[in-house]
Task: structure prediction
Amino acid sequence: MARSRLIRVSIYVASGLAALTLVGGLLHTPLGRPLLARMGVGCPVQAPPEDVERARLQSAHATQGTEASPAKPALGFVLDKMTMSDVEAWADHAHVSCEEMRSGTVLHCTKVPESALGGRTGGPVDELDLAFSPASKRLVNLATTQYGLDSDAATAQMSAVVAGLEQQLGRPTREAGKLSADYLASGPYRTAVVRYRFTDYQADVSTTNLPGHGIVVREHYMSARD
Amino acid sequence: MDHPSTEELPDVTPEVFVTKFSLVSIFLLAGAGSVAIACSSSTSDDSSPAGGAGGSSGSHTGGGAGSSSAGKGGTGGGTGGSASTQAGAGGEGGSAEPSTLYSRLGGHEGIAAALDSIVTEELKNPIIASYFSQQASSLHKPTRADIEECFTNFLGKAANGPELYPIKATSGYQCRDMATAHATLGIGSGTFDLFVMIAGEELTALGVLPDDVAAVASALNGSKPQIVTPSEPSGAQACHLPASCALPVVGEGGAPGDGGAGGAQ
Result:
């Protein structure tokens, strides 16, 4: 009899939990989310990694060049080859702090020393995001951000990065803005952009006078292969 | 989930127990499923960190953004590609520059084309992409075209164009105000700044004049208080999982605090 009561209680508890789960689910629907927001809670789950990767490839195809890249420089990382485990081993070796995001398809690293980035110079990188294909599990996309530089340092940094890319890739596909310290310091959102577009690889280097963040240097390297 | 053996349940007939337990299982699965489905469509409300407001003006066809897809909007494809054709590229052709930001951006069509290029570049960023990516599927509302059309009208209005705000997009999707559209996305200040920075880079690559890039950025920043969730991390990382919310803030700075929508001329 006691066991019967226990079972009945268990069923009620399970039903209650199920009901709560259902309510939680409903709160995350388009109709329920405003109520969730009013409660001070957001829906923390963003797009599935497969959708993110599909969108990335669509964008890559929309902007791809006409020739294959002679090389795929990516700060010492190997696109289309390295796995999450490889990168985690790199992080351990370089004493870099990284955090997995988005179901293990993005690794977000902070304060990455220049010595860990394939001979790069110019000081540590504040943020490094590495994205892996959900299908192949290989590294396909990485971006760095370096905040708080002055215009001279940012100009020197971007010039050095671009010089390194030119050695391997030749002349950029696109150069825009103006890479000079005076120009970058002359107003908010003054920007210099250098882009490489190949059929199988893309690289971007930019410098922006970002209000509140000083001059920011961004590097972006990604595979454009399916 | 292990079902207890019926031998252990002398006071409950197997049929009744199985029925009750199956119902509970179905209930649990339905609940879990609804969470998964709901959250996986969390960007079905205007999901661009700075987009999604505005509406299609009756005086415009809306075709510029409406016809957009990921297959257009390239910037400098091939070698030495000129990227100055889409955004109106102020000063092009050597004639006197148009006197308003709106006209220098190429009017409604120029803004729509520029936004298509901007979204294309934003989707390449590992952090920003998760806010947009479901628009790669035509099954989600708003579609990418909806977002771009809403966004075009928002920027058109901010640039003192004739666009109205907010009204329905061509597809019938109702563009909403910034606060409503982004209320539950949990966009941090750093993520917003990253979005604006990428937009500025793309406008620069498109040949938009530096002052006009700054004006557009200021217009976007004017919507920052409505878009950013104050409790989210200020760094450029998005809060995709609770663990990532605790990451240290890097490169934090105050909000630019410049500009406001509508003042950019």
In short: Residues 105 and 132 of chain A are 5 Å apart (CA to CA). Confidence is low (pLDDT under 50) at residues 40-45 of chain A. The radius of gyration of chain A is 23 Å. Helices of chain A lie at 2-27, 33-38, 49-62, 84-94, 151-169, 181-185.
